[in-house]
Specification:
Jelly Rolls, six-stranded antiparallel β-sheet, 277 residues, DNA-binding, 10 helices, 39% helix, 12 strands, alpha+beta, DNA-binding transcription factor activity, Arc Repressor Mutant, subunit A, 2 domains
């Protein structure tokens, strides 16, 4: 990603329970940029612009869905790769990566209604924020505006589902060994009850969320070259077998394992997931 400079900022302390991080992408060239993005299962808020205009031309998912988002939009969690095509211009993108339950806790949204998809500023109460961000004279001013807006949403006291938040903690801590049935046994819920609550809060089913997170963990292991064979990566993350891992790599990256291994050094990664130009 030589033509784009990425900066990852920690969340404001007061929003640490709702925000994972903030990623800023700056492109100073004039050529069009295309970024291939793998899913992370996380929602977010994205602001993209160049001199007061939208910088994104369109986003196309692996299944063929295409949309042209406004300069500021709320994005739901997705479980398929996508291609983001920017206009032939310099641009700046500010992406607030939310915690999995933030659509519900900040906006009171049933996350399943926004997965996969996006919501414009008018629908999420951020119509004035778009113009304020456009007029901001610095990155710091933009961050202050975003923080103030999100704090105003937080103060409206949306209900939290603490059981689902605890289940997410267990998933992240024991990704390589945990199954959905383990969560059902831990929380003494039926599969139907747990899936309904998880999907409302996160936007994905528990199984889909686990698959996406294990895929990201697998790419991390492949990048670090900790294991020489794909079978060892599959075993480390408790995939049924190598074929299971291969299917998920193809589903979530759009690449075969051979091609992915050849390009893995070009993958950019932090808390926001994996992407490459």
């Amino acid at each position: 990603m030589h033509s784009i400079h990425f900066t990852v900022l920690p969340p404001p302390a007061i929003l640490k329970n709702e925000v994972e991080c903030v990623r800023i992408a700056e492109h100073r060239g004039k050529e069009a940029v295309t970024i291939q993005v793998s899913p992370t299962g996380a929602p977010g808020m994205v602001f993209h612009h160049h001199n007061g205009h939208a910088a994104l031309e369109h986003i196309v998912t692996h299944s063929g869905r295409s949309f042209c988002p406004p300069p500021l939009f709320l994005s739901g969690p997705v479980i398929e790769p996508s291609v983001m095509t920017y206009k032939q211009t310099a641009f700046t993108t500010v992406q607030v990566i939310f915690k999995p339950c933030a659509l519900k806790t900040l906006f009171g949204i049933n996350a399943s209604h926004l997965a996969p998809g996006w919501m414009g500023p008018q629908e999420c109460g951020a119509l004035d924020l778009t113009s304020q961000l456009m007029e901001a004279r610095s990155r710091q001013e933009q961050m202050t505006l975003l923080t103030t807006f999100l704090l105003s949403r937080l103060k409206q006291e949306k209900p939290r589902d603490m059981l689902i938040e605890e289940s997410l903690h267990l998933i992240h801590a024991h990704m390589g060994s945990l199954h959905v049935r383990d969560l059902l046994n831990t929380f003494h819920l039926s599969e139907r009850q747990f899936e309904r609550r998880f999907t409302q809060a996160v936007g994905l089913t528990p199984q889909a969320y686990l698959r996406v997170k294990r895929f990201n963990a697998a790419i991390h292991l492949i990048k670090t070259r900790r294991f020489a064979r794909l079978t060892d990566v599959a075993a480390a993350l408790n995939f049924t077998d190598q074929s299971h891992l291969i299917r998920d790599i193809k589903a979530f990256s759009g690449l075969t394992p051979t091609r992915l291994a050849g390009q893995v050094d070009d993958f950019y990664h932090e808390q926001t997931g994996y992407a490459f130009v």
